[in-house]
Design a protein that fits this description.
This protein has 416 residues and is of the alpha+beta class. It contains 5 helices and 24 strands. Mean pLDDT is 80; it is low at 80-89, 124-147, 153-157 and 390-401.
Amino acid sequence: MTEPIGAYTYQDLLTRVAIEAGNAYYGTTGVDPAMAPVTNFHDFDQVSGVVQRGIKRFIDLAPPDGWNWRKRICSIRFLTVLTKATAMVTSPAAGDILTQATSGATMVVRSVSSDKKTVYGTQTSDAVFTTGYTVSSNNTGATMSPATWTPATVTAGSTAIASDQARFLMPQDFSGVPSGKIAYAKNTAHNTEVELVHDNGIRRDRSCTVVTGYPSRVAILPYGVRRYELLVDPAPVAADVIEIPYQAHFDLIQLQGGVATAGAATTLTDTVLTTRGYFPDDYFNGWVITVLGGTGRYQTATVTDWDMSDSKFTFTALSGGSTPDATTVYIVQPANNYHPAGASFDTMVLGACLAQAVLDLGLEDKSGRVAEFFKVLLPAAQEMDRKIAGRSRRLGLMSNGPPYPRERTWNDVTYS
């Protein structure tokens, strides 16, 4: 789900709370714009805790029927773009994807004859088969000479894991439990029922052979740290979309930072970071490093590898070409690291965090942060949420919510 660009990031919220608490970082010269206090672990941990508890307080104070903004749908797209490889097929196997050399037509192999000369499969593109084979009228079988076909690779579709088109990464805010029935999108040209099952059965069957077809069984299992993956069976053969309703989950703030202890053209080392928490290998892969101060200031890079044993980030290069060193102050966070409620609730979420800072840190509430949140911002958020359709629907009800009882009123009318 694409988030509006106006939504506050966690970095924005941390910075505002740090200003309120009086411990913001103002760069190595002390005159830069305020930033989250990543150079001081105590201060950073303090403001991170405040923001985390502030967001959780906002979520906990939901309307009686829950927040509509938490109702989401995860859309997983199966098989997508196919590209030709260079090697010729010598022994195709079930599950292989083949591209016809002359026409570019593609097919998924279902079975292979014992002599390896005839391949049966399912067509997956609209191109017309022209040489070396025939296609049955129902488009489910084909025979051809292997010499005219090349193997194909799959461009990873909706967050496919390790190019395995039966495994898909779920959104970061998915809590592990669907909130409704899993089903194919309404424009899918078949009505296969989808059953949520335990992953043991699917993995057992896949260990023997990978069957292809229209997925009818799915399982949800943990993936890495605080993430989940979707495992489907059979392995998909068409670019269908499956929809999974869920409630957006908020667990913790995904943002770290500090001061580099060493650097090179494509690496940044911070030996202190691993003393702040447990970050296993590859934990930060795909996250974005932003340099706040020192060498490389305001430059960014996407992490390609994180090595816990060396406390080292690896990336292609900083956007400005600088080489990080021991003066480099940085943060690392996922791309599009917005708070969970979305741009419409920016003011309310920020108000919750500032009120939490007053309550947690014992600050003098000269600006009335607590009263503003509970008496103004929270009621406004609940009213706004009542007017929006739950995001688990494609189209909301054409109403402003439940009807209210109305009383007859009258006034005296004076004619002149």
